[in-house]
Amino acid sequence: MAQNTFDRFYGVIPAGGVGTRLWPLSRAAAPKFLHDLTGSGSTLIRSTYDRLTPLAGERIMVVTGEVHRQAVCEQLPELDEQDLVLESEPKDSGAAIGLAAAILHRRDPETIMGSFAADQVVGPLDVFLEAVREAVHTAATGKIVTIGIRPTVPSTGFGYIRAGERLSIDDAPSATAVAEFVEKPSEDVARKYLASGDYLWNAGMFVAPTALMLKHLELNQPELYRGLDEIAAAWDTPQRDEVVARVWPTLPKIAIDYAVAEPAADAGDVAMVPGVFTWDDVGDFAAIGRLNPASENNHLTVLGDGARVYSDQASGVVVSDSKRVIALIGIDDVVVVDTPDALLVTTEDHAQQVKQAVETLKASGEVDVL
Amino acid sequence: MAQNTFDRFYGVIPAGGVGTRLWPLSRAAAPKFLHDLTGSGSTLIRSTYDRLTPLAGERIMVVTGEVHRQAVCEQLPELDEQDLVLESEPKDSGAAIGLAAAILHRRDPETIMGSFAADQVVGPLDVFLEAVREAVHTAATGKIVTIGIRPTVPSTGFGYIRAGERLSIDDAPSATAVAEFVEKPSEDVARKYLASGDYLWNAGMFVAPTALMLKHLELNQPELYRGLDEIAAAWDTPQRDEVVARVWPTLPKIAIDYAVAEPAADAGDVAMVPGVFTWDDVGDFAAIGRLNPASENNHLTVLGDGARVYSDQASGVVVSDSKRVIALIGIDDVVVVDTPDALLVTTEDHAQQVKQAVETLKASGEVDVL
Predict the structure, then answer these.
(1) Which end of chain B, C or N, has fewer beta carbons within 10 A?
(2) A65: nearest Cα among A27, A103, A122
């Protein structure tokens, strides 16, 4: 290798996705990654950035929507202008991660990128970093490496990755081949996956040489590849705006899993490093209950600076984004999300149904609160 | 008689009581009687006033707190200055109704007053008026007359009145004597009361010659009587403010039931006219559910102009005093009361516990929202 392996590493943080199931906390204008959902004092994107710096330093690129430029810059003041990639409109993860790969590849074709979504909760740090280190070493052997999460419950909310045979890579003792990616299973199937030990959660974490990412993108999504390559060629030139305005809107919308990971796995080019750290994509308010243990005294998880919550025989989750007094009386496993212009009252068991509520509100024209 | 019986009639509306169980809708600064709790388009005090005008015309006196002067005048623009009696501090119903009696008696000793609380829901109007007419005729024979409500359920939330023998009064065929007033019963006892047919709810409605009211007040609460008489003597003179400021704060706090009605009943001076109209004191949010039938489509009672409520598998009561979007998902018999600075989430079964929440908030110093 021309460089030390870790000198080649570049973090990429795709920061898209509204987090519809976290409405009304998460909004189009203030998506999930701009919130502190764990009471840590940091927003999810800030925590994601801080998690990568021990390995990447300031070599971290963020891909997000043009509308979030200001909020992201406030969260990440150290972010260099060249590391901020703004989408004029959302085009799914294939275009977002593909563009980062194409730009980084133009700047340095030896780059190994590591893509980690901006809205996940991970810990402890040292276990995460050890998995990323193994993934970088594995990627350096010419693999697209996904970090699979060792499941703790038979979740039906995540896709799974079936581990193949163990690879023999120096400095990556736990790396395996990937036999296949599988979609979100039924509960019965999820239970079998958990029992078998061969299936890990697909957390959407990818570490790979940009060259290999782009090779598979070109093979499987030639139109997307050509568009991204044209944009990347213009990116660090005065033509950027003109080319982006012309090409970006024409790009197909496709997830990176379908555009690259799954076909590359079929070609035998994907490896996996198991992650034994805690991981959650904070998909709904029930997750917030899991991630923020309730106080022993009142069985309530309360999230929000200066929340003024009174409870009597109540349990569940309260997210307070206002300074209002909230009184909860005689109600169990409740979810109350209080924001200045919208209020959600549901139960932990119905947390997934929030998505439909948002869709109905959108269809009814109540778009000012979405 | 010197006058036609109805020329002697004067309506009195005591408008006190915060309605703690209706927090956070009802507040110290915006008590129950200033709200429209039935979706009628009228506040309770406005409806109470309108209910009396067919019999009293504009001969209606309102007794309320000094702090509610402006709100009451906005609700009742036709109220004459001489018909507005303002309390500098609350002194319970004995002083409030007693002062009205004393002032009206000074102005015309032949007055028959009819006292009807400002925060009750009554209907239909013609049945109510017929009961009041009988009560006025009965009062004219020298009785304190209470209108008892024929119970429809074995309520443990109201006091009861046991009917005595039927009186023989022209124009008041249904009037009876009162055997006794009884306190709120246990559920078993309430069931017996309902079955017997002799027990009616005590709705706190009194029709009586002021002279007789004051006679019993003097007998049973001489200190209160003397204070009220001194204030009444000064009321329509320039000395009013000085005398009120000196005497009112010294008056004992006692309910009119104990100060007058119960001892007068023991003396055989109280009669009852049964009311077969619908009556509710709107004591809690469960009452609001009863009084405002849920929409057939979504099983939700929604109160509030411009409420923006989305519901999915939810039932109960929503009171919206804000313009926020409220989304309810998968929750039954819920009570959500949304105001600009305070939010209540409870269930219809726990509606009575709201009072304790308010007491705890008061003890915690959260008085800005009470």
Answers:
(1) N
(2) A27
Q: Look at A329 and B360 and tell me if their CB atoms are within 8 Å.
A: no
Average pLDDT over residues B281-307: 85
How distant is the Cα of A285 from the closest Cα of chain B, in angstroms?
13
B111 and B93 part of one domain: yes
Where among A257, A280, A303 does a domain terminate?
Answer: A280
Residues of A in contact with B334 (CB under 8 A): 331, 345
Find residues 308-337 of chain A whose CB sits inside 8 Å of chain B: 308, 310, 312-313, 324-331, 334, 336
**Residues of chain B contacting residue A315, judged by C-beta atoms under 8 Å apart:** none
Q: Which of A344, A327, A326 is nearest to A288 (CA)?
A: A344
User: What distance in Å separates the CA atoms of residue B191 and residue B179, rounded to the nearest whole number?
Assistant: 19
Q: Range of A235's domain?
A: 5-280
Say how many domains are in chain B: 2
Mean pLDDT of A152-181: 94
Q: Which residues pair with A308 in a beta bridge?
A: A325
Domain at A176, CATH number: 3.90.550.10
What distance in Å separates the CA atoms of residue A351 and residue A334, rounded to the nearest whole number?
10
pLDDT of residue B3: 62
Distances (CA, A) of B12 to A209, B61, B208: 86, 5, 11
